[in-house]
């Protein structure tokens, strides 16, 4: 059976109109938010969405709000045409790709200085993604914070990251108006933050955490993996290999977190990586544990070359 026709929508009002029309017909809508450069991990999220909804929307938007001014937004990989082709080949098809140009452009420039006006207008004319965390970022000043869960782990080294994630996800929820949204557990902290935000703000949306997808060699699938050299990729396998060993050790009764963390950190360092963090935390609260006595998750972020990789493994003992 041929796949359904894929519709590409770029405007907020058009996206809202499509969703409301679908809902008026009794259809349920699933949303898979992405920043593009799709891989098998993303495609697994889409298949999960299709299990829980009649129609599926995939958003492709590189969110400037989660990058600090010191992070180079332009290096994030992008291949929109390739992404669309992958989505067209998904069994059963995808209904809509929501691909907005700039969700932080509100059409106002009178609140910028003359220099800021020129910079933003020039950037837009050249098709650049404008970072809204810079001074005068198109007047956007409303942010969503999940105050406790965003601290620690990735939040320690990227202080504006989860503010930007929670805000853009809220914007997407308000535009697409889905019944279900799917997030990958690879970004474990992000998934838990979105869950908590939806609970606290009474969004009528079911949040589903889809299992982490790995390559055959064990490396967690990520859009950033393409930036690894062959040698760096080989060394990066130390992350998943050490996590699997720690999980096995915990299941055999080694439950002191310091010992497990030291083992993982040592393995990554010996492989030439630089550890950002290696923490064992409670699966729900994300609070650091000294000993595993309840469902836990071992979260790791490490640099190989100039590529920061994240991985995690749930431990249920």
Automatic annotation (TrEMBL):
The alphabetized list of GO BP terms reads:
pantothenate biosynthetic process
- UniProt pathway annotation: Cofactor biosynthesis; (R)-pantothenate biosynthesis; (R)-pantothenate from (R)-pantoate and beta-alanine: step 1/1
Reaction(s) catalysed by this chain's protein: (R)-pantoate + beta-alanine + ATP = (R)-pantothenate + AMP + diphosphate + H(+)
**Highest taxon of source:** Eukaryota
Q: How does it assemble?
A: Homodimer.
Xref: HAMAP family:
PanC
Name the family the entry cites. Belongs to the pantothenate synthetase family.
Q: What is this protein called?
A: Pantoate--beta-alanine ligase
What organism does the UniProt record list as the source?
A: Perilla frutescens var. hirtella
Q: What is the taxonomic lineage of the source species?
A: Eukaryota, Viridiplantae, Streptophyta, Embryophyta, Tracheophyta
């Amino acid at each position: 059976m041929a796949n359904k026709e894929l519709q590409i929508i770029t405007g907020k009002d058009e996206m809202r109109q499509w969703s409301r029309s679908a809902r008026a017909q009794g259809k349920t809508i699933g949303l898979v938010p992405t920043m593009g450069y799709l891989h098998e991990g993303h495609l697994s999220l889409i298949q999960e969405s299709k299990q829980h909804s009649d129609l599926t929307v995939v958003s492709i938007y590189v969110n400037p709000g989660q990058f600090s001014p010191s992070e180079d937004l332009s290096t994030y990989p992008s291949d929109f045409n390739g992404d669309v082709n992958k989505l067209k080949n998904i069994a059963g098809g995808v209904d809509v790709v929501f691909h907005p140009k700039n969700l932080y452009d509100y059409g106002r420039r009178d609140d910028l200085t003359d220099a800021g006006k020129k910079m933003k207008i020039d950037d837009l004319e050249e098709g650049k993604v404008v970072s809204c965390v810079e001074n005068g970022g198109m007047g956007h000043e409303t942010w969503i914070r999940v105050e406790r869960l965003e601290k620690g782990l990735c939040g320690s080294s990227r202080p504006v990251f989860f503010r930007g994630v929670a805000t853009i996800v809220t914007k997407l929820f308000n535009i697409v108006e889905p019944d279900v949204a799917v997030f990958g557990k690879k970004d474990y902290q992000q998934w838990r933050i979105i869950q908590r935000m939806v609970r606290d703000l009474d969004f009528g949306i079911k949040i589903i955490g889809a299992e982490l997808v790995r390559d055959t060699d064990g490396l967690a699938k990520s859009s950033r993996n393409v930036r690894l050299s062959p040698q760096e990729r080989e060394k990066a396998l130390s992350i998943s290999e050490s996590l699997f060993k720690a999980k096995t050790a915990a299941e055999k009764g080694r439950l002191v977190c310091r010992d497990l963390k030291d083992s993982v950190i040592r393995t990554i360092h010996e492989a030439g990586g630089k550890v950002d963090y290696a923490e064992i935390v409670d699966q729900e609260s994300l609070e650091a544990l000294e000993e595993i006595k309840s469902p836990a998750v071992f979260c790791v972020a490490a640099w190989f070359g100039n590529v920061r990789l994240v991985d995690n493994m749930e431990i249920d003992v």
